[in-house]
Amino acid sequence: MTLKHISLIIFLLVFGRAFSQDEATNSEKGHTYEANWESIRSRYKIPDWFRDAKFGIFIHWGPYAVPAKGDEKYPKYMYYKDHIKKDGFNTYEYHQKTYGNHKEFGYKDFIPMFKAKKFKAEKWARLFKKSGARYVVPVAEHHDAFAMYNSNYTRWNAVNMGPKKDILGALAEAVRKQGIKFGTSSHLANWRNYYWKKTEYDNSNTEYVDLYWKPVKNKSKPSQEFLDTWWNRTTDIIDQYQPDLLWFDFGLDKPGFESVHSKILSYYYNKGEIWNKEVVFQNKNMRNVSFPEDLIVLDIERGRMDNIFKYPWQTDTSVGYKSWGYIDNEDYKTSNYLIDELIDIVSKNGCLLLNIGPKADGTIPQESVKILTEIGDWLKINGEAIYDTRPWLVYGEGPTQVNKGHHSEKKNKVFTSQDVRFTQKKGVLYATVLDWPKDNVFTIKTLSKLSKVDDRSISSVEFISGKNKINWSQTNHYLTINIKGKSPCKAAYVFKIEFKN
């Protein structure tokens, strides 16, 4: 072997080793997903931590909490003369009467009033833990474009103005200390949020264009300048706060955002690899072409599925019927209603992301505290039928049908004692009845001896929700459970069922 051959072999060995090390380093850093669906599909799956979690808290909080009127879209409708809410409230007129001319007092002028002096991230996190939530998702930036974090790309942020503290960072630290997963949401893709007039409003002043953006025509697509802004601000959130979950609103589904879809998904999933943790990306998928269903978690706003969905999914809804942010005349739901909703969602392979709207001073309204506490009390007793479970052969039985799709919750009726929802875990079946029957007798047709769903013989029935004595029998037509005494808890009642084989 000549010296030339030996030199060549040494070169190849050294080069090959260096190449392998670089390749290994890239793999360790998580550079595994390319910006196309095939590459992402080859490796990604929805993590079990999300499928097990079932219940999360959403937080809509920003300068729109200062006026506390209308809803969280106050910054949009305060500039729109002709918009009247269903309850007759006209945001434009209210603003003019309360705060004066729109040119002198615009949305920007609420920001110095948004001081959040009573905000205590640790106190919030303890409440979320008490509620039984396993993930928390604060809004990083809403349609108003005010960043609730230490942004590197906009001066209009909570560190520079208003609270003058990193709200998102404080919540991330406090929530994670409680052992709860931390997510963030972005609503910035709605670049047509504000209504412009040439001289009538303060948003005609070019000094504030970085908050209000530029006038655009209706139905126009976002400019490349806006897409670049969106990308920088979104990746800034990802890089700084390393969220376990990333949530996007309807805007990302609008025409013109197609170029960033696979790009942002691969960017975030690669970051998850670098951080060595499993992450979740959520989107509304209104146009059904934005993101493949198997690569993200579909989020349904104020609505649900009407049957078991083959992929994990999520409902986002709020403790109130009127608004996502705090308003002083909110119409609050009951914890009973929301617990039933959680049970129904989980039986269909979903999770519930329940929103609260804190006040401008940083306190959580007592109505919200009460609701979260009562949900937590129910989950302490009955949580084994919710957490870590999977759908059964059917989601349930009963006369009350749920409407499917976005913004369908207002059409749903209250559940009855005939409505039952099923979940399963480790070979055990859980049957949750959504109301207490007047005669104390629970009947479940799906678990009869002649059931077309599962006709196995039952070996045991245990009442999870209380210490009441029970008698049960499995006949050709029903599983019948007779309970002694009064209802031991509110909302819904869980039975743990095991089969002989």
Automatic annotation (TrEMBL):
Residues 416-498 form the Alpha-L-fucosidase C-terminal domain. Residues 1-20 form the signal peptide. SUPFAM superfamilies: (Trans)glycosidases. It comes from the Bacteria. Transmembrane segments: none annotated. Pfam families: Alpha_L_fucos, Fucosidase_C. InterPro entries: FUC_metazoa-typ, Fucosidase_C, GH, Glyco_hydro_29, Glyco_hydro_29_N, Glyco_hydro_b. Residues 26-384 form the Glycoside hydrolase family 29 N-terminal domain. It is an enzyme of class 3 (hydrolase). Its EC number is 3.2.1.51. Keywords: Glycosidase, Hydrolase, Signal. Belongs to the glycosyl hydrolase 29 family. Alpha-L-fucosidase is responsible for hydrolyzing the alpha-1,6-linked fucose joined to the reducing-end N-acetylglucosamine of the carbohydrate moieties of glycoproteins. This is alpha-L-fucosidase.
